[in-house]
């Protein structure tokens, strides 16, 4: 599978409209910082902090930033990493969870809910240039 096809499927899964509620062992947490090697420090509703890992299907395809909310599931192996990210929550997911009274009240006063969900999926470090535009621009410059 090509990188572009894989990315398309990962984006589709991440933005899936599956508004299922978290199971008993899943927790909603907020990303505090990135620690490298696909590890993120998160803040749980009980104000404890711990490390979670990004699953391989999301690595190099989806980026999360500080203040984003994710759904995590605890893992047994390892001492420092306590959980793994199951789903990255978008604004639509958050609205649905608030309507179902599942959203933790500790996170309800944040203004992060108003940000655009597309920020989760865009790598701002690299500009995407349309190949057709760049080739037509260079041709017109060559003719001058």
TrEMBL record:
Protein family membership: Belongs to the EIF1AD family.
Gene3D superfamilies attached to this UniProt entry: Nucleic acid-binding proteins
Species per Swiss-Prot/TrEMBL record: Tribolium castaneum (Red flour beetle)
Domain S1-like: 5-90
Keyword Protein biosynthesis carried by entry: yes
Gene of this entry: GLEAN_08520
Lineage of the species this protein comes from: Eukaryota, Metazoa, Ecdysozoa, Arthropoda, Hexapoda
Region (Disordered): 102-144
GO CC term (a single one): nucleus
Molecular function terms from GO: RNA binding; translation initiation factor activity
Domain of life: Eukaryota
Record keywords: Initiation factor, Protein biosynthesis, RNA-binding
SMART domains: eIF1a (SM00652)
Feature: compositional bias, Acidic residues: 129-144
Protein name: Probable RNA-binding protein EIF1AD
Keyword Cell inner membrane recorded: no
PROSITE patterns listed in its UniProt record: S1_IF1_TYPE
Short name of any one Pfam family annotated for the protein: eIF-1a
């Amino acid at each position: 599978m090509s990188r572009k096809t894989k990315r398309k499927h990962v984006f589709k899964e991440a933005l899936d409209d599956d508004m299922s509620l978290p199971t008993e062992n899943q927790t909603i947490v907020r990303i505090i910082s990135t620690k490298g090697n696909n590890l993120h420090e998160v803040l749980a509703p009980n104000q404890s902090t711990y490390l979670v890992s990004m699953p391989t299907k999301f690595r190099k395809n989806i980026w999360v930033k500080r203040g984003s909310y994710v759904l995590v599931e605890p893992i047994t192996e390892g001492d420092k990493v306590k959980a793994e990210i199951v789903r990255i929550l978008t604004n639509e997911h958050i609205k649905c969870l608030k309507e179902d009274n599942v959203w933790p009240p500790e996170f309800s006063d944040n203004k992060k809910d108003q940000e655009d969900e597309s920020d989760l999926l865009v790598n701002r470090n690299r500009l995407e240039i349309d190949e057709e535009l760049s080739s037509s621009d260079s041709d017109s410059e060559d003719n001058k």
